[in-house]
C-alpha cells in the first residue's frame, strides 16, 4: 500500500466563538486519500461534509474554528501554514471545484483570461504560453472550439460549460488532489452524467486524487473508489464503494440508500398500488390546449421586443384526482407552463380550461374562486415564504382572504393545517429562518392547502431538499392526495420520482412535448430518443446480485459514455 | 450545508462599535438639547445687548457675543431645535414619498416602471443646491417651503435606492403567492415588500438626514429660510462672517455645531448599516 496523499487526523471544527453557544460541525473525523484515489464524501445538509472539504484547502468557513486535528498533505501539516504558503497550495497542488459555477466565475472577465490568471499566479507559464495552456485545458475538459470559447464571458456559457471551465481552472497547475464540493448539484441529469464522465476521464489521464463531496450516493457510486458517510459531524462509515452501496453496515447509510429514488424500484413508503393505475376519473379538470408562452422581457427593450416563446404549442389534460408530471431538463419550459397556467406570463396564447371554464391569461383578472381552487407550491421554500412573517401569519393570510377567518378561529385552523402536514402546531410562532428546509417546504404546502384547493401545482418541490427529506415530502404529498382527493401537476427533473409518483407524464424538450402519455408507456421502450437520453442519464444504484460476473468497476450503472458537449 | 450556515451564529463580530456608540450618545445629546433648549439658555437668543458686541468667550458668554451683543451660546442652543426639526421633516417627507414611489415602481414593473425610473435618473442628475435655489427664488422663502423643496429634491434619490432594493424582493415567490391570492397592490407593498426593505429605508433615512441638515443650512446661509433675528445656524454664519475679523466665535460656534451633528448622524448610520448588512466570507485568520 502506498503512503496516503492526504491524511485527515481527528479533525474537529466548531461554529461560534463562545464555548457555550458553539455548534460542533465536524467531530473527530479521520480518513486518508491515496494518490490517484477518488474518495466520495456523502451526507445530508448540515452533516459537516462541506466544512471538511474546505478544511482540506486549509480554509475556514465564516464563523468556524478548528478545535483540534491535523491535515497532512504529502506528509506536511497544512493547517498551521501561513496564508502565503496556503495560497500557493490552493489552486497549485490542491485544486478546488465549487458547487455553484455561476457565482464562482468573475462575470466581467472572459473565461480564458480567468484561467490564464490562475496559471500566471502560480507561475506555471506566462503570456502566450499561458494562453496556449489555457486553451489546451479547455480542450481537455471537452469544450468545443476552445479558442473561441476562451473569449466568452461566463453568462454566455451554460451551467455545464461553466462547470467545465472551473474544472479546467482547477487542473491548471496539475494538482495532485482535486476537491469537488457538490460539483453537479445545480445541473440537470444529462449534464451531470457528462460531468461525471469527464471527471472519470481526468482521473484516468492525470491520475489525480479526488475528494468528491455530494449528497447523492448514486452519483458517488459512479465515480468513487471508496465512500465515506457523514452524519451530524461524525464519520459513520467508510469503505470501498462496492461494500457501502452493496452491503452497508450502518443503519444511517441504509436510510440514505433507501431514500434514493430509483427507476427500478418504488421508493420507501410509496407502494405501487392499484389505485394509482386507475388514475383520475371522469372529465378532465384542467385542459391545456395549444399553449404558447414566454417569459417577461427585462429592461426598456421589452417594450418593443417580445422574447421568443419558451413554450410552443403544448396541449394536455388532467383528470380529477390524477397526477400529471412534466419532466425535462432545465430550460425546457416546465416552470413556464406552470406560470402560464396561473396567468403569470405575458402574451399567453392558447386555451387553459379549468372545470369547463376558460381561465384568463392574466392572473389579475381571475375570480376569487379560481384563485382558491388552484394553488401552487414553489421549488425553493427559502424564497416562497416571507422571511419577515411568522408561520401563523403565512398560513393565516389565505384563511382570512378565502374564508374570512379571523382571530382565534384563524389560529386554530392554521394549527390544524400544520398538523395535516405533520408539523408541530408550536411552529406557528416561528419564522421561516427558524425552520429546516424540509419544514419550510411543509409550511409552503400547508399554505397552499389553506385554500382547500382542487389542483395543486408542484413546481420542482423536491429539488431544493435532501434525499431523505425528499422521500418524506413525497410520502406527504401522496397521503394528502388520498385524503383530499387532490389533482397534481407535478413538475420535476427527477425521472425516478415521476416514474413512481405520476400516472401521466409529458416529456418537454425545448418547449415542446416529445413524449406524452401514461407513465408506463412513456417509460417503457421504444423511447423517443430524447426520453431515452434522459433515462440513460439517471444514476442508478444496482443491487449486488445484478452485477454478478461483471468487473468490480461496474458498480456504477448509467450511460456507457455520454456525449461530451454540453 | 445551507442548514449549517444558518445554524452558525449570524452576527459574529457584529456589535455596535465604539464610534457608533459615541455617535449615538452625541445624537441623543442633540435631541435633548433641542427639546430642553429654552430651559438651558442663560439669555434670550434675540436679546440685543446681552453683552458688549464681539465679546470673547467668558463664563457668562461661553461662545462670546455677536455684532449685536447677543449671546452666541444661547443662539446656537436654541437653533438646534430648528436644525433638527427641519432636517428630519424634510428627510421624513422625502423618505415617505420616495419609499412609496420606489416600492410601487418595483411592484408595477413593465413600461411604466422603466419610463418613471429613467425620469427619476434625469431628476437626480440635476445639481440639488441649484435646483433648490431656483425653487425658493420662485416660490419665496420661509422654513416650510425650504423643507418642502428639500423633500421634493431628495424623494427621487430615495425612490431610486428603494426601487433597486425592492426589485430583488418582487421576484421572490412569496410575492407571486400574494399576487395569486389576489392581494391588492397596497397589501403587497405593505405586507410583502416593505418589511423586506425596511433596513434599506432606515439607512436611507439616516444618510439623507445628514445631507438635509447641510442643505437647509446652506440655503439659510444664502438667505433663504427664516428671516433675522431667528437663531438659525446657517443664518448665524451668514451674519457673522462679515465681521469674522472682529470675532470668529459667532461663525465658529454654529459651524461646529452643524458639523458635529452631521458627523454624529453619519457615524451612527455607518454603524447601523454595518449591523443590519451582510458581511462577506471570512478567510482563515490564524
From TrEMBL, chain A:
NCBIfam families reported in the protein's UniProt record: PRK10419.1, PRK11308.1
Matching PROSITE patterns: ABC_TRANSPORTER_1, ABC_TRANSPORTER_2
GO molecular function, one term: ATP hydrolysis activity
Domain ABC transporter: 6-257, 295-535
Keywords: ATP-binding, Nucleotide-binding, Transport
InterPro entries tied to this protein: AAA+_ATPase (IPR003593), ABC_transp_ATP-bind (IPR050319), ABC_transporter-like_ATP-bd (IPR003439), ABC_transporter-like_CS (IPR017871), Oligopep_ABC_C (IPR013563), P-loop_NTPase (IPR027417)
Main location: membrane
Record Pfam families: ABC_tran, oligo_HPY
Entry protein name: ABC transporter domain-containing protein
PANTHER family per record: D,D-DIPEPTIDE TRANSPORT ATP-BINDING PROTEIN DDPF-RELATED, TRANSPORT ATP-BINDING PROTEIN
Family in the record: Belongs to the ABC transporter superfamily.
Localisation per UniProt entry: Cell inner membrane
Gene Ontology biological process: peptide transport; transmembrane transport
A cellular-component GO term for this protein: plasma membrane
Protein's membrane topology: Peripheral membrane protein
TrEMBL record, chain B:
CDD domains (alphabetical): TM_PBP2
BP-aspect Gene Ontology terms: transmembrane transport
Membrane topology, as annotated: Multi-pass membrane protein
Coarse class of the protein's main subcellular location: membrane
Keywords: Cell membrane, Membrane, Transmembrane, Transmembrane helix, Transport
Lineage top rank: taxon: Bacteria
Occurrences of domain ABC transmembrane type-1 (ranges): 80-269
InterPro entries: BP-dependent_transpt_permease, MetI-like, MetI-like_sf
Entry GO CC: plasma membrane
Regions that span the bilayer: 21-41, 83-107, 128-154, 205-226, 246-268
Protein location: Cell membrane
Protein family membership: Belongs to the binding-protein-dependent transport system permease family.
Protein name per its UniProtKB record: ABC transmembrane type-1 domain-containing protein
Lineage: Bacteria, Pseudomonadati, Pseudomonadota, Alphaproteobacteria, Hyphomicrobiales
Amino acid at each position: 500500500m502506498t503512503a496516503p496523499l492526504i491524511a485527515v487526523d481527528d479533525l474537529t471544527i466548531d461554529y461560534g466563538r463562545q464555548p457555550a453557544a458553539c455548534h460542533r460541525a465536524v467531530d473527530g473525523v479521520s480518513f486518508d486519500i491515496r494518490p490517484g484515489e477518488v474518495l466520495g464524501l456523502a451526507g445530508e445538509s448540515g452533516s459537516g461534509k462541506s466544512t471538511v472539504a474546505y478544511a482540506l484547502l486549509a480554509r475556514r468557513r465564516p464563523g468556524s474554528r478548528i478545535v483540534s486535528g491535523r491535515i497532512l498533505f504529502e506528509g506536511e501539516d497544512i493547517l498551521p501554514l501561513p496564508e502565503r504558503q496556503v495560497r500557493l497550495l490552493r489552486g497549485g497542488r490542491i485544486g478546488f471545484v465549487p458547487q455553484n459555477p455561476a457565482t464562482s466565475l468573475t462575470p466581467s472577465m472572459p473565461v480564458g483570461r480567468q484561467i490564464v490568471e490562475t496559471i500566471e499566479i502560480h507561475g506555471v507559464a506566462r503570456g502566450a504560453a499561458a494562453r496556449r495552456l489555457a486553451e489546451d485545458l479547455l480542450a481537455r475538459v471537452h469544450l468545443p472550439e476552445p479558442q473561441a470559447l476562451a473569449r466568452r464571458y461566463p453568462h454566455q456559457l451554460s451551467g455545464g460549460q461553466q462547470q467545465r471551465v472551473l474544472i479546467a481552472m482547477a487542473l491548471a497547475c496539475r494538482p495532485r488532489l482535486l476537491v469537488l464540493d457538490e460539483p453537479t448539484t445545480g445541473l440537470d441529469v444529462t449534464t451531470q452524467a457528462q460531468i461525471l464522465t469527464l471527471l472519470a476521464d481526468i482521473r484516468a489521464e492525470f491520475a489525480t486524487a479526488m475528494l468528491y463531496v455530494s449528497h447523492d450516493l448514486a452519483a458517488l457510486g459512479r465515480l468513487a473508489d471508496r465512500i465515506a458517510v457523514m452524519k451530524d459531524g461524525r464519520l459513520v462509515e467508510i469503505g470501498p464503494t462496492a461494500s457501502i452501496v452493496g452491503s452497508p453496515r450502518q443503519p444511517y447509510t441504509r436510510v440514505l440508500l433507501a431514500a434514493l429514488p430509483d427507476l427500478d424500484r418504488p421508493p420507501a413508503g410509496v407502494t405501487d398500488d392499484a389505485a394509482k393505475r386507475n388514475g383520475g376519473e371522469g372529465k378532465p379538470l384542467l385542459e391545456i390546449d395549444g399553449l404558447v408562452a414566454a417569459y417577461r422581457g427585462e429592461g426598456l427593450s421589452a417594450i418593443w421586443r417580445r422574447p421568443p416563446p419558451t413554450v410552443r404549442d403544448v396541449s394536455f389534460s388532467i383528470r380529477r384526482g390524477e397526477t400529471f408530471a412534466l419532466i425535462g431538463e432545465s430550460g425546457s419550459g416546465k416552470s413556464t407552463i406552470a406560470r402560464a397556467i396561473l396567468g403569470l406570463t405575458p402574451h399567453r396564447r392558447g386555451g387553459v380550461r379549468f372545470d369547463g371554464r376558460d381561465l384568463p391569461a392574466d392572473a389579475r383578472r381571475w375570480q376569487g374562486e379560481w384563485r382558491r381552487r388552484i394553488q401552487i407550491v414553489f421549488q425553493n421554500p427559502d424564497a416562497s415564504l416571507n422571511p419577515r412573517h411568522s408561520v401563523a401569519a403565512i398560513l393565516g393570510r389565505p384563511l382570512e382572504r378565502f374564508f374570512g377567518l379571523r382571530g382565534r378561529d384563524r389560529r386554530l385552523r392554521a394549527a390544524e393545517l400544520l398538523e395535516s402536514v405533520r408539523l408541530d402546531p408550536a411552529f406557528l410562532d416561528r419564522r421561516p429562518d427558524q425552520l429546516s428546509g424540509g419544514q419550510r417546504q411543509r409550511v409552503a404546502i400547508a399554505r397552499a392547502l389553506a385554500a382547500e384547493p382542487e389542483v395543486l401545482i408542484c413546481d420542482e418541490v423536491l429539488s431544493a431538499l435532501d434525499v431523505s427529506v425528499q422521500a418524506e415530502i413525497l410520502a406527504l404529498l401522496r397521503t394528502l392526495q388520498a385524503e383530499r382527493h387532490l389533482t397534481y401537476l407535478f413538475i420535476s427533473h427527477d425521472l425516478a420520482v415521476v416514474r413512481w409518483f405520476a400516472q401521466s407524464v409529458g416529456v418537454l424538450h425545448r418547449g415542446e412535448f416529445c413524449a406524452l402519455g401514461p407513465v408506463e408507456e412513456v417509460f417503457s421502450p421504444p423511447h423517443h430518443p430524447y426520453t431515452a437520453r434522459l433515462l440513460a442519464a439517471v444514476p442508478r444504484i444496482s443491487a449486488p446480485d445484478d452485477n454478478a460476473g461483471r468487473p468490480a468497476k461496474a458498480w456504477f450503472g448509467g450511460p456507457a459514455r455520454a456525449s461530451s458537449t454540453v | 450545508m445551507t442548514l449549517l450556515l444558518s445554524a452558525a451564529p449570524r452576527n459574529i463580530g457584529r456589535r455596535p462599535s465604539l464610534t457608533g456608540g459615541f455617535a449615538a450618545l452625541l445624537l441623543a445629546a442633540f435631541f435633548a438639547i433641542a427639546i430642553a433648549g429654552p430651559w438651558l439658555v442663560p439669555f434670550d437668543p434675540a436679546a440685543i445687548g446681552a453683552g458688549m458686541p464681539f465679546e470673547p468667550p467668558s463664563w457668562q458668554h461661553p461662545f462670546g457675543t455677536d455684532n449685536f451683543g447677543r449671546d452666541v451660546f444661547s443662539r446656537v442652543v436654541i437653533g438646534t431645535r430648528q436644525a433638527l426639526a427641519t432636517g428630519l421633516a424634510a428627510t421624513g417627507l422625502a423618505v415617505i414619498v420616495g419609499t412609496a414611489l420606489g416600492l410601487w415602481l418595483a411592484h408595477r414593473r413593465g413600461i411604466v416602471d422603466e419610463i418613471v425610473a429613467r425620469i427619476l435618473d434625469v431628476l437626480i442628475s440635476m445639481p440639488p443646491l441649484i435646483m433648490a435655489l431656483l425653487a425658493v427664488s420662485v416660490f419665496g422663502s420661509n422654513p416650510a417651503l425650504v423643507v418642502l423643496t428639500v423633500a421634493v429634491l431628495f424623494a427621487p434619490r430615495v425612490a431610486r435606492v428603494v426601487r433597486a432594493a425592492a426589485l430583488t424582493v418582487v421576484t421572490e415567490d412569496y410575492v407571486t403567492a400574494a399576487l395569486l391570492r389576489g392581494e391588492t397592490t397596497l397589501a403587497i407593498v405593505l405586507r410583502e415588500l416593505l418589511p423586506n426593505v425596511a433596513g434599506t429605508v432606515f439607512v436611507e433615512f439616516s444618510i439623507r438626514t445628514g445631507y438635509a441638515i447641510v442643505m437647509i443650512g446652506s440655503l439659510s446661509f444664502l438667505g433663504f429660510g427664516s428671516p433675522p433675528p431667528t437663531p438659525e445656524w446657517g443664518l448665524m454664519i451668514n451674519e457673522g462672517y462679515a465681521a469674522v475679523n472682529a470675532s470668529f466665535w459667532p461663525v465658529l460656534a454654529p459651524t461646529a455645531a452643524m458639523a458635529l451633528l452631521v458627523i454624529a448622524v453619519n457615524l451612527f448610520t455607518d454603524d447601523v448599516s454595518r449591523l443590519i448588512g451582510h458581511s462577506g466570507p471570512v478567510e482563515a485568520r490564524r
